[in-house]
Design a protein that fits this description.
Layout (H helix, E strand, L loop, with lengths): L3 H23 L17 H8 L1 H34 L5 H9 L6 H14 L6 H25 L3 H9 L4 H30 L4 H4 L7 H9 L5 H26 L5
Helix pairs in contact: 1-11, 2-11, 3-6, 3-8, 3-10, 6-8, 7-8, 8-11
């Protein structure tokens, strides 16, 4: 009986990771179509992923969009979380529910709603309209991570600093922010990854001059399926795994504070 649980975990993880392993294996095929067994192995498709101008441009646009959205979400989410956790005011629960409401809405519905909203205002799709949409989607993830860190900081730490004569802003910047920094970094990493991977909402707000990487991949695989896309997806999986590892290490060091 004691061997059943490890065996079950192995089966579950094998089932979950089998598609990704198959995709990574396909990226090393020499032929441009899926066969088994493969005739030969090659790394040329990884070079192909960095030489296709449409993918390079889309990757750059996705990174600029993701970093911009993450910075704005952090600037909004950190002080908002502090106010919601430490503040005592009427309507706090309603405001918190409003901030976290994008988590309960499918991004497809949110994308349609934003498209109708911008169309009603006669605003054409642009980088800024898409940026606002991404900020709405990822801000709750910053709030949740910062909330967990802030709940672990005793309120008497702030009261002691205030009692020594420090103004509230200095208390937040010099005392609170360093203590919750692991939550801020973890929330920012998670928000950036979600922004980088967002497709359902982005496809409604994109324009011919602004095509993010997920939209570009989605458009490409409608007509092509080759190891080049598998190589690009494998690189994205490795990048995501690396950032998640960093996030886990940052979260693991939180107890040191």
């Amino acid at each position: 009986m004691k061997y059943c649980r490890p065996a079950l975990l192995v089966v579950i993880f094998a089932f979950l990771f089998a598609p990704m392993a198959t995709l990574a294996l396909f990226s090393f095929y020499e032929d441009s179509y899926l066969t088994f067994p493969p005739k030969a192995w090659t790394l040329k498709w990884y070079a192909w992923a960095f030489t296709r101008p449409e993918f390079v441009t889309s990757l750059r646009q996705s990174f600029v969009l993701g970093l911009s959205a993450t910075a704005i979400a952090a600037l909004i989410g950190v002080p908002a979380t502090f106010a919601l956790v430490r503040g005592r005011f009427r309507g706090r629960g309603a405001i918190e529910a409003l901030v976290l409401s994008p988590l309960m809405l499918p991004t497809v519905i949110l994308g349609v709603a934003l498209l109708i909203f911008w169309s009603a205002l006669r605003v054409k799709p642009s980088f800024w309209t898409l940026l606002i949409g991404h900020v709405i989607v990822i801000t709750p993830f910053v709030v949740l991570n910062v909330r967990v860190s802030l709940l672990g900081v005793p309120a008497n730490v702030e009261e002691a600093a205030l009692g020594l004569g420090a103004p509230p802003l200095r208390v937040f910047m010099r005392v609170v922010l360093p203590l919750i920094m692991p939550g801020v970094i973890a929330g920012a990493i998670l928000a950036f990854l979600i922004s980088l991977d967002e497709l359902a909402m982005t496809i409604f707000l994109t324009s011919p001059t602004l095509v993010t990487l997920p939209v570009q991949i989605f458009t490409y695989v409608e007509w092509h399926l080759d190891p080049g896309i598998a190589a690009l997806a494998t690189l994205l999986m490795l990048f995501t795994t690396a950032l998640l590892f960093v996030m886990d290490r940052v979260r693991g060091s939180e107890h040191l504070y």
